[in-house]
Design a protein that fits this description.
two-stranded antiparallel sheet, 3-methyladenine DNA Glycosylase II, Chain A, domain 3, about 40% helix, alpha+beta
Length: about 300
């Protein structure tokens, strides 16, 4: 009899708790907007983080909650933006694709003061050592950015990264991989965009000792085109809010004493043959060895 009573009490408790859980489920339930799943379905499922969110599902939720733009997926591009906008019943606001550029254009023979390096062939490791090259701002050339790119959109040529924009999704993995913060995403308002390909903030005298093409902060570009160019901390910058790519910058390019203004976009003709061959430097080791030998 005692066993029967205990079983009945236990059964009753189970039913009470089940009822309480049922009530709690209904009262505490958070209804998810069905559009989140619909938006997530049209995304490329790359989960690359290039949109600024942890993955596609987080981005879909942010778009529905109006915390992100329909055009925020760099992998999907305009096609995906149009599909997302259709799901939400809104118009796509035209935006420019943001693509990476490298603020260092120095090739092997232009980097001065390179020394033999026997450590781990990694930019992060070489940066920690700090004695691989005289320029403490420039590209170290070991290709961490190239290795981090899952889309095979970067190659190392003559000790510097070259971006294949036809493969680049703008995910930003290369930006995170660079220990010297040389890679930046800018709005590509044209197929080819002008970039100040230098990051050295030292005075001109010191820049000339470490690089053949480093910016010397002469302010000539600012005097010629003050709305587009600014000089701060001995380094020239392009204001991409004011620069559209339609401006005539030929005077700046011709008169820049360092020749540090370069266009990013389709590869330069002289790179095409190298990129098509197997002779590209995969990680900068050849550049370090060659430059050290030439310095000696």
């Amino acid at each position: 009899m005692v066993v029967v009573v205990a079983a009945m009490v236990l059964f009753g408790l189970v039913m009470v708790f089940a009822g309480l859980l049922g009530v709690a489920k209904e009262r505490l339930r958070v209804d998810e907007d069905p559009r989140i799943e619909l938006v997530n379905d049209v995304l490329p499922a790359a989960n690359c983080g290039g949109c600024g969110f942890a993955g596609c599902s987080d981005f879909a939720k942010a778009v529905v909650e109006e915390r992100a733009e329909c055009s925020g997926c760099p992998v999907g591009g305009e096609k995906t933006a149009a599909q997302v906008a259709k799901v939400l019943g809104v118009e796509v606001v035209k935006t420019y694709p943001y693509r990476p550029v490298i603020h260092c254009a120095a090739e092997c023979d232009q980097k001065l003061g390179r020394v033999p390096y026997d450590g781990v062939p990694s930019c992060v490791e070489a940066d920690m050592v700090g004695t691989t090259q005289a320029c403490t701002y420039g590209c170290l050339g070991f290709g961490d950015c190239s290795k981090a790119c899952t889309y095979d959109a970067l190659s190392m040529v003559e000790g510097r990264p070259v971006v294949h924009y036809d493969r680049c999704t703008g995910c930003g993995a290369c930006i995170t991989a660079c220990p010297r913060n040389l890679i930046e995403k800018i709005p590509f308002k044209q197929d080819r965009m002008l970039v100040v390909a230098c990051s050295n903030k030292e005075p001109a005298k010191l820049v000339k000792k470490v690089c053949k093409i480093g910016c010397i902060g002469c302010s000539l570009c600012q005097r010629l085109m003050g709305e587009q160019f600014k000089v701060s901390d001995n380094l020239a910058y392009l204001d991409y809010d004011n620069y559209t790519g339609d401006e005539d910058v030929s005077n700046v390019l011709e008169r820049c004493p360092a020749g540090v203004m370069v266009y990013f976009g389709p590869p330069k003709p002289e790179y095409l043959e190298q990129l098509a061959s197997d002779d590209t430097d995969p990680g900068g080791e050849q550049c370090v060895a060659a430059q050290a030998a030439s310095d000696n």
